[in-house]
Amino acid sequence: MRILLVEDDPQIARIIRKGLTENSYAVDVATTGDEALYAASVGNYDAIVLDVFIPAPNGFEVSRRLRAEKINVPILMLTARDAVSDRIDGLDAGADDYLVKPFQFGELLARLRALLRRGGPTQATVIKVDGLEIDTRSHRVRFDGRPIALTTKEYGLLEYLARNAGRIVGRAEIADHVWDEEFDPFSNLIEVYVNRLRRNIEKVSEKKVIHTVRGAGYMLDVSSERREE
Asked: Could you tell me which of 12, 30, 164, 226 has the fewest CB atoms within 10 Å of its CB?
């Protein structure tokens, strides 16, 4: 899942980005309100973590403008001010949740998961697709009860495919939601990770899980038996 982090303090941005990346999120960073508005208008983000006190326009105004432009990405607003009136201002400006600094990183992750779950049944904490089970809190993956060991990026790719199970997901869409803005569209990284993911899954599964739809993309479907492509 791809996150836009809006934070002008380099140290805080570095810490949050590192933590989110280690939890399989792809993260882009904006340091001003203008950068945030531009990034949100051109990127496909699953959530925005937005600090209130950034170079103009501030987080409240950024949130208002995004909602005015019908950009309905979930927004988690961060601020050092904990007055009830500030929280009300943030929520009225269009934020979906509000977290006061300093905070425990685990709470930030939990609030992000809660925001992402609001997207519907495929956003559940535990994603189940036939025998495949993905726990989005612990990042544990099992197939028919047998554990599958994955790297951070392999997990991120599998989670996104599982959230869209039964639907063909194009290469560009995968890049938009699993990789950050530094992804090279001319590289073969997606193919490399899909193949790694397949090999890891097939160590415990007798079924083909990830299918290639030539010229279109990939689809996660556990219902069919394994077959050569």
From this structure: 226
